[in-house]
Every structure is written in C-alpha cells, then in structure tokens.
What does this fold into?
Amino acid sequence: MSEPSIRKSTKKAFHFPKGSNGEAAGEGKQAEAPAKVAVQAQPTSTKAVKQKRVEPAEGAPVSSAVEETPKRVKKEKVVRDSFTMPKSDYAKIAILKQRCLDAGMSVKKSEVLRAGLLLLESAPAKRLLAAISEVETVKTGRPEKS
It folds into this structure.
C-alpha cells in the first residue's frame, strides 16, 4: 500500500487581531503557553548553540553579583534654562574656564556657574547681599538686533 498523502490547505491562515493587552482576541493565557514552549525549544541561531561556558580563573574568588552592586543612587533631574547677562560677565566665565584648563581641569560653563552658586550658598548672609548688590540689573529677554 502506498503512504497516505497530506494535502496542504488552500486557505490562508486566519490571524486573530491583538487586543490592548497583547493577547489575541478570545484567547486566554492557557492557549498562549504551548506556543511559547514551542518557540523556546527551537534555537534562534547557531551562535546560541555553540556558545562556550566560561569558567572563572583558578584562585579568583567567586562572589555573587548581588554583593558587588551597591544600591543605585537616583540622579537629580536637570532643568534647561536661559538667562540674560552682560558681555563682560559672559567673558568672565570664559576667563574662569581658561584658568581651570591651565590648572589641568576641563569645565563647562554650567559647571562654573554651579560652582559659583556653591560658593555663594556657603557665604554668610552679609557677603551674599553685598555680592548681589554689586551685580547690575539687566533687562530680561533677548537683546535687540543691532
């Protein structure tokens, strides 16, 4: 007897539209689980099959990754802002940046301004008020085109 022949279906496969939660409409988690198992059983590439296991060097202490990573500190959010200042004050920032470069330290304009804030913050109230009274007031906004 001859082997039974298997005919390919002539209709295209119907795909259920995905819902808002990523599952096909009308399917539960039970129907989804066997599909995941089948996908995991097949290797995705030959590299995954041929990967070698790396052994730690002899004499090297083995420690867990949990012990090595300290608790992560959240960075403070930054704020982007613009301000108006006289050209002479702007030139002072460039001079301070150059002094830092001469000392072997590269800094940005924002770092120079933030360092100035730290110095003013630690100054006594009389010194702070004296420094602020020495600063001339300028008109806010963009300068007029000349």
Summary: The longest helix spans residues 87-102. The chain has six helices and no strands. The chain has a mean pLDDT of 75.
